[in-house]
From TrEMBL:
<dbReference type="InterPro" id="IPR045584">
    <property type="entry name" value="Pilin-like"/>
</dbReference>
<keyword id="KW-0812">Transmembrane</keyword>
<dbReference type="GO" id="GO:0042597">
    <property type="term" value="C:periplasmic space"/>
</dbReference>
<keyword id="KW-0614">Plasmid</keyword>
<dbReference type="Pfam" id="PF07963">
    <property type="entry name" value="N_methyl"/>
</dbReference>
<protein>
    <submittedName>
        <fullName>Uncharacterized protein</fullName>
    </submittedName>
</protein>
<feature type="transmembrane region" description="Helical">
    <location>
        <begin position="6"/>
        <end position="30"/>
    </location>
</feature>
<dbReference type="InterPro" id="IPR012902">
    <property type="entry name" value="N_methyl_site"/>
</dbReference>
<keyword id="KW-1133">Transmembrane helix</keyword>
<dbReference type="GO" id="GO:0009279">
    <property type="term" value="C:cell outer membrane"/>
</dbReference>
<keyword id="KW-0998">Cell outer membrane</keyword>
<keyword id="KW-0574">Periplasm</keyword>
<keyword id="KW-0472">Membrane</keyword>
């Protein structure tokens, strides 16, 4: 008798069924990329970016400058520039973080349906929010 090689039809159908189920479950759990994020989450998201920049400045022992312009927050560190976009937001102002963690300045965040928010970094590099 000649040995058989390959897969049986039932094995292929079961594999395809399992893959379809995994794809359907994954697709249902993915965030909607065509929808703008909730405006109320903007202050928290910008604050998290500020806290991350503070941690980076202290860990790397370098100065970091953050500058808001329109929906873009520009981070400058050791001559390297990175930008973050915050859709629906308008950012103004700037913040400087020294290698020892000391900060100066503030960012102002406005967006449709959101109260004007002033963001700074407090002791320990924690973001603080207040009204403009």
């Amino acid at each position: 008798m000649k040995p058989t090689s390959g897969f049986t039809l039932i094995e292929i159908l079961i594999t395809i069924t399992i893959l379809c189920g995994l794809i359907a479950a994954t697709t249902a759990l993915l965030p909607r990329m065509d929808r703008a994020p909730d405006v109320s989450s903007l202050p928290g998201r910008v604050g998290s970016t500020l806290e991350g920049a503070h941690s980076q400045a202290v860990e790397e022992g370098t100065s970091i400058t953050l500058q808001g312009s329109g929906d873009t927050l520009q981070l400058t560190s050791a001559g390297e520039i990175t930008t973050d976009r915050f859709v629906q937001a308008t950012l103004t102002g700037g913040l400087s973080i020294a290698p020892d963690g000391a900060t100066t300045g503030a960012l102002t965040l406005t967006a449709p349906g959101l109260t004007c928010t002033r963001l700074t970094l407090g002791p320990g590099g924690l973001a603080q929010q207040g009204a403009c």
